[in-house]
Amino acid sequence: MPDFSPREIVSELDRHIVGQKDAKRAVAIALRNRWRRLQLDPSLREEVLPKNILMIGPTGVGKTEISRRLARLANAPFVKVEATKFTEIGYVGRDVEQIVRDLLEVGISLVRAQRRKDVEAKAHLAAEERVLDALVGTSASPSTRDTFRRKLRGGELDDKEIEVELTSAAGAPGGMEIPGMPGGQVINLSEMMQKMMGGVKKTRRVSVKDSHDLLTAEEADKLIDQDKIVAEAIEAVENNGIVFLDEIDKICAKDGRDGSVSREGVQRDLLPLIEGTTVSTKHGAVKTDHILFIASGAFHVAKPSDLLPELQGRLPIRVELKPLDKDDFRRILTEPEASLIKQYVALLATEGVTLAFTDDAIDAVAEIAVHVNATVENIGARRLQTVLERILDDISFSAPDRSGETLTVDGAAVRTAVGDLARNTDLSRFIL
């Protein structure tokens, strides 16, 4: 785990997300506490539980993005789930323990990608030998192989087609649940038979250039210990895993409304997961005691106090994310490394069109987004995408025919494109 200080974590998040200092500070401290915990004596380490976070704020203000960027910064297994996907056990719906199983699959993919990089050089050489075997045969003389090796490394043979034999390790989709086994334990008979026979060999005809990644990945998998990958992934999930639980306000039961039993049941099912339990997966048991849970919700109708008291107690850090104003929208359009304006400029540059936004155009877009959010529905920064798409509709459509042109979008053009729509509330509801 990287040992970034909280200040460095906030600074890194600032590169991609505008505002929301309180939320950034909370997640930065939570991430640093994980590093601190790993430095403790093992006997004390097990006693230090994560301080889970409840983010409160309207949609489109950065709750999900903060969590996702945090996980990427920490190189930690991360899943985002909606609480509304789950229903109480006994009702139709998903089992909450599936969250941990999905998180483990993400962890295995992360660890496998890291281990493949470690053996990339050896795997590349082994893949090169297999390409040479396909080009000149296994019985070719060393001088012939060396000649073709030089051509291969020089890129002269990239377009030549060869036949390569690849191992299909994945079984056929679908499996069979065994009665009495823990949830999620599915036996895939096809996959079991393939493993017993060493995998099914499939011959594919591909270009030399395309064969490189396929063969390198297969050779890398031969060099790494799959059981060790699973063990490392389980450890990474147990100590570094992050679960973002969205729409938690939608499972609050209020005043005996219809479905309140199911809503409260989901909270009761989530409770042991957040408190700390052991979940059975097809790769082994996973303890959830030290997984960091970040819950979020708009809480327009319900309140955090409507959650079960036990669940509230397991989400001790509360941060409120503020609604976005015009200045925030202006910064979102221009400041982040991959801001919306930079994205559209880069997209149209692929057609040879130079796109430029004036300052008053950016102000106008921000004003319209704030106005529509206030009069129709507040969807936060996502409104900017809707407004920009409307403004650039004609330019995007005709861009292939306007290569070499420089197109400037000013405030007048913005108001012409969406000004009337923004003022007409009925039309805004349908279009913006």
Summarize this, please?
The chain has 432 residues and is an alpha/beta fold. Helices cover 52% and strands 14% of the residues.
Question: Can you walk me through this structure?
Answer:
It is built from 19 helices and 13 strands. The strands form five sheets. Strands 2-7-10-1-11 form a five-stranded parallel beta sheet, with helices on both faces. A two-stranded antiparallel sheet has the order 3-6. A two-stranded antiparallel sheet has the order 4-5. α1 crosses α2, α2 packs parallel to α4 and α6 crosses α7. The longest helix is centred in the first third of the chain and has 21 residues. It is flat.
Query: Unreliable segments (pLDDT under 50, ≥5 consecutive)?
Result: 170-180
Supply the helix-strand structural class: alpha/beta
Helix % is 40-55%
Intertermini distance: 43 Å
Please compute the radius of gyration using only Cα atoms.
Answer: 27 Å
Mean pLDDT: 83
Spatial order of the strands forming the largest sheet: 2-7-10-1-11
| Total E-strand runs | 13
Outline the biggest β-sheet. 5 strands, parallel
Principal-axes geometry comes out as flat
Question: Keywords, please?
Answer:
432 residues, two-stranded antiparallel ribbon, 13 strands, alpha/beta
